[in-house]
């Protein structure tokens, strides 16, 4: 059975770098199935990277190797590491992205290449080879290392104020604005109660409607359940983020009755 390898990056596709990496992978694993998750993460955005990988890795079979390439350079100050979680392998730089993905679930431990004299790409490919051949615990790897925590991916619920606080963390290709508020939290806390969501951007926007999926008739802004598992701000056939001038980091407050 051929090895499934996914790629997620901020590299775009205008330049040949993604194709060059695929070529290097195929030199090592000629039968590999390489799947592009996306190469259009906002440049250097680890929060967005963590969100996308965290919400889609389980769509792939156990044993899949996920390469996380955002903000990676040939001579990075953050060495690439290999982390095994939930039956999958994750390879990326020790730059905080893994804490964004898994930091609240378990103590993070990973492996590095023992000989770090090569550039970042060669180290990454070496870890890829180890993971694909099932020799993760071999002599080429060092002891467990401590992952760096740089950011958080958590919304906040304060029951005493009957309020959920979050922020916009991703704007998709249709210019819908995805927040960091989990659908599960919204459904458990707000449910069918009346609510008012206030978005603080360059203006102030009020939203009072929520749908389980996209609504084909509501021309006003509304909240809906995004396929990534988070609450999204949308409007029927409308570029919400553009029209409302929404941006990453804009705060959203949901007050419920």
Structural topology:
Elements: E1 4-8, H1 17-28, E2 33-38, H2 46-56, E3 65-68, E4 80-85, E5 88-93, H3 97-102, H4 120-132, E6 156-158, E7 163-171, E8 177-182, H5 183-189, E9 195-200, E10 204-207, E11 210-211, E12 222-225, E13 230-234, H6 240-243, E14 251-256
Parallel strand pairs: 1-2, 1-3, 3-5, 11-12
Antiparallel strand pairs: 4-5, 6-7, 7-8, 7-14, 8-13, 9-10, 9-14, 12-13
Cα distance spanning the termini: 54 Å
Please indicate the percent range of residues in DSSP E strands (runs of 2 or more): 25-35%
Q: What's the SSE pattern?
A: EHEHEEEHHEEEHEEEEEHE
Contiguous helical run count: 6
Biggest beta-sheet profile: 9 strands, mixed
- Which structural category fits the helices and strands? alpha/beta
Mean pLDDT: 86
Residue stretches low in confidence (pLDDT < 50, at least 5 long) are 138-144
Radius of gyration: 20 Å
Number of strands: 14
Can you give the helix content as a percent range?
10-25%
Tell me which oligomeric state these chains represent: single chain
Q: Which overall shape is indicated by the principal axes computed on the Cα atoms?
A: elongated
Name the descriptors.
alpha/beta; about 260 residues; 6 helices; about 30% strand; single chain; 9-stranded mixed β-sheet; elongated
TL;DR of this structure?
The chain is of the alpha/beta class and 257 residues long. It has six helices and 14 strands.
Structural features, described:
With 257 residues, the chain is an alpha/beta fold. It has 6 helices and 14 strands. The protein has helices at residues 17-28, 46-56, 97-102, 120-132, 183-189, 240-243; strands at 4-8, 33-38, 65-68, 80-85, 88-93, 156-158, 163-171, 177-182, 195-200, 204-207, 210-211, 222-225, 230-234, 251-256. The strands form 2 sheets. Strands 6, 7, 8, 9, 10, 11, 12, 13 and 14 form a 9-stranded mixed beta sheet that branches. Strands 2-1-3-5-4 form a 5-stranded mixed beta sheet, sandwiched between helices. The longest helix has 13 residues, at 120-132. The termini are far apart.
């Amino acid at each position: 059975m051929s090895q499934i390898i996914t790629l997620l990056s901020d590299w775009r596709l205008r330049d040949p770098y993604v194709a060059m990496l695929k070529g290097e992978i195929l030199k090592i694993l000629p039968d590999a199935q390489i799947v592009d998750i996306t190469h259009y993460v906002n440049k250097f955005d680890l929060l967005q990277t963590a969100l996308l990988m965290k919400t889609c890795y389980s769509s792939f079979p156990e044993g899949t190797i996920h390469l996380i390439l955002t903000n990676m350079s040939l001579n990075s100050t953050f060495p690439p590491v290999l982390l095994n979680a939930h039956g999958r392998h994750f390879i990326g730089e020790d730059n905080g992205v893994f804490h964004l993905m898994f930091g609240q679930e378990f103590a993070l431990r990973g492996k590095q290449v023992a000989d770090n004299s090569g550039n970042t790409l060669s180290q990454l490919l070496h870890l890829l080879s180890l993971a694909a051949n099932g020799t993760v615990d071999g002599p080429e790897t060092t002891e467990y290392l401590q992952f760096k925590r740089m950011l958080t991916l958590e919304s906040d619920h304060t029951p005493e104020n009957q309020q959920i606080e979050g922020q916009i963390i991703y704007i998709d290709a249709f210019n819908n604005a995805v927040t960091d508020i989990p659908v599960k939290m919204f459904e458990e806390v707000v449910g069918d109660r009346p609510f008012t969501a206030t978005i603080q951007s360059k203006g102030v926007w009020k939203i009072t409607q929520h749908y389980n999926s996209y609504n084909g008739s509501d021309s006003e802004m509304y909240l809906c359940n995004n396929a990534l598992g988070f609450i999204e701000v949308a409007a029927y056939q409308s570029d919400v983020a553009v029209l409302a001038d929404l941006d990453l980091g804009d705060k959203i407050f949901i007050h419920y009755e």
